[in-house]
């Protein structure tokens, strides 16, 4: 709906024009009237109309003066001047003020509607174009973080960037200050007990939506395990060190208000070229290895050579996280953790061969843990000596994937075996330990399988099967409810009745009546 303001010093002219609009222009709404230039200025500010019909000859502030004043605060409003003067001088002034059209007094109703309609259509087109641009802007804003994360992924982790990398950078724009460095945001839970570990997805969402009070452009990468990489570009005249510390402190202060997590930041060295940012990322990882520093951030340039050499062997905590992710079933996250360990080795300039041996040792521990959980997995091995860190990462991820594929096949067979066993022995006393023993697995692993694949624990699965069997016996046999109770595995008819009603919604007696009622009807 187009919002219209009528300005004229003659009340009868205002009333007549409003009536014409209301009867002949359904897409235009008259939101107000003004009797002079001053009222017009005030009404335009208050009502924010899209279109104003402006009488020129009015006492005090005339129409052209009012237009000029309204234009100062509302550039988008369209004006149609209404005048008895048809002179060249007037036309010049009107054009200068950006008047869209004009009507002479008096005008036929058809001319009024045609003129108003022409301007209204122009306003609609402009509004649609603005709405379309706004929608595109919203889409771009939503897409920008995803594009930034993809760019960071390629710059820091891929040895060979895709052909679309330059196009993605052009899409979001490269900051004017192209010098930059990498930060790694490392999160740890305030609670030390493993039972209080939580998913970091919520924290990443908070980080991605956070607007730091800094002038430095920042490209945020994807969360990998408990770390988020960020590329920070230089801005202003302050030194790299001053800007790095300032941004780090802003991150820490902002995220401390969120609660539940502790943030530590490793800061890599300054790079003059985007292609060198991978080196800064390795430096940031090394700087973040000792996250016990009270400042809660560390610059790579502060590390000594002895510090760097020692860091290469301090990946025990990261190796523990690999095992924890495997235990929780987060296999992709486990692969990300191993990739980070390899990055640490590369940054510390350990040889590829030594790094491969260390990763192999981690995978052996993973295999043993899976076997202890009851999974039948093969021992991993590297078929040949790795020649690059990139190759080592790819092969390590593939080895983990192979373990998973073996485990999936084994789990499918185990579930089928346990399902058939429960159905065959449902009338007996069935404990979790007994079910686990039939497939030679530990009870914890069996319980985990049931929850993951059936969405319930084993006792709920057993209960549902028993109740379905009872319903079938009620329908197909003349056995008493007491006989059915014992046959499906319950020793107490009252307890069986409560369980049945909870799952079915009716007591066993009422349910049986519902079944036999149709057969008791007498036929005439």
UniProtKB/TrEMBL annotation:
Top-level taxon in the UniProt lineage: Bacteria
Statement: the UniProt record of this protein carries the keyword Transcription: yes
Source organism (scientific name): Paenibacillus plantarum
Organism lineage string: Bacteria, Bacillati, Bacillota, Bacilli, Bacillales
Matches recorded under SUPFAM superfamilies: CheY-like (SSF52172), Homeodomain-like (SSF46689)
Annotated Response regulatory domain residues: 3-120
Keyword list, A-Z: DNA-binding, Phosphoprotein, Transcription, Transcription regulation
Residues found modified as 4-aspartylphosphate: 55
KW Transcription regulation (keyword) present: yes
Occurrences of domain HTH araC/xylS-type (ranges): 416-514
Pfam families attached to this UniProt entry: GGDEF_2, HTH_18, Response_reg
Protein name: Response regulator
């Amino acid at each position: 709906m187009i919002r219209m303001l009528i300005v004229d010093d003659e009340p009868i002219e205002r009333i007549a024009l409003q009536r014409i609009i209301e009867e002949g222009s359904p897409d235009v709404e008259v939101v107000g009237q003004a009797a002079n230039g001053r009222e017009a200025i005030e009404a335009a500010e208050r009502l924010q109309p899209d279109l104003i019909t402006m009488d020129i000859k009015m006492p005090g502030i005339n129409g052209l003066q009012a237009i000029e004043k309204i234009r100062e605060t509302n550039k988008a409003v369209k004006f149609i001047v209404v005048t008895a003067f048809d002179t060249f001088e007037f036309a010049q002034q009107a054009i200068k003020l950006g008047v869209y059209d004009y009507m002479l007094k008096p005008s036929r109703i058809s001319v009024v509607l045609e003129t108003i309609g022409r301007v209204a259509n122009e306003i609609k087109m402009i509004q649609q174009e603005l709405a379309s641009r706004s929608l595109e802007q919203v889409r771009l804003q939503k897409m920008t973080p995803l594009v930034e994360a993809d760019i960071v992924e390629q710059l820091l982790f891929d040895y060979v960037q895709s052909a679309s990398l330059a196009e993605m950078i052009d899409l979001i724009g490269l900051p004017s200050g192209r010098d930059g460095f990498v930060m790694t945001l490392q999160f740890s839970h305030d609670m030390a007990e493993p039972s209080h570990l939580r998913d970091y997805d919520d924290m990443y969402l908070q980080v991605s939506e956070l607007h730091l009070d800094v002038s430095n452009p920042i490209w945020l990468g994807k969360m990998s395990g408990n770390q988020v990489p960020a590329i920070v570009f230089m801005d202003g005249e302050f030194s790299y060190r001053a800007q790095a510390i300032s941004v780090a402190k802003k991150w820490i202060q902002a995220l401390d208000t969120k609660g539940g997590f502790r943030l530590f930041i490793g800061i890599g060295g300054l790079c003059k070229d985007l292609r060198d940012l991978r080196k800064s990322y390795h430096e940031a990882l090394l700087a973040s290895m000792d996250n016990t520093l009270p400042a809660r951030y560390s610059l790579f340039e502060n590390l000594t050579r002895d510090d760097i050499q020692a860091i290469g062997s301090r990946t025990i905590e990261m190796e523990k996280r690999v095992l924890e992710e495997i235990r929780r079933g987060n296999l992709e996250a486990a692969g990300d953790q191993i990739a980070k360990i390899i990055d640490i080795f590369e940054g510390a300039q350990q040889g590829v061969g030594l790094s491969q041996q260390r990763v192999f040792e981690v995978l052996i521990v993973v295999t043993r843990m899976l076997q202890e959980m009851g999974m039948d997995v093969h021992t991993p091995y590297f078929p040949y000596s790795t020649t690059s860190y990139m190759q080592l990462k790819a092969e390590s991820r593939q080895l983990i994937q192979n373990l998973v594929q073996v485990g999936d096949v084994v789990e499918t067979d185990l579930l089928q075996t346990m399902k058939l066993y429960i159905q065959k022995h449902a009338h007996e006393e069935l404990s979790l330990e007994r079910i686990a023993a039939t497939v030679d697995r530990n009870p914890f692993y069996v319980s985990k399988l049931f929850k993951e694949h059936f969405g319930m624990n084993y006792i709920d699965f057993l209960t549902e099967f028993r109740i379905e069997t009872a319903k079938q016996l009620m329908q197909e046999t003349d056995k008493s409810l007491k006989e059915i109770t014992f046959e499906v595995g319950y020793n107490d008819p009252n307890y069986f009745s409560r369980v049945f009603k909870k799952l079915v919604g009716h007591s066993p007696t009422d349910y049986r009546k519902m079944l036999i009622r149709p057969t008791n009807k007498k036929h005439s």
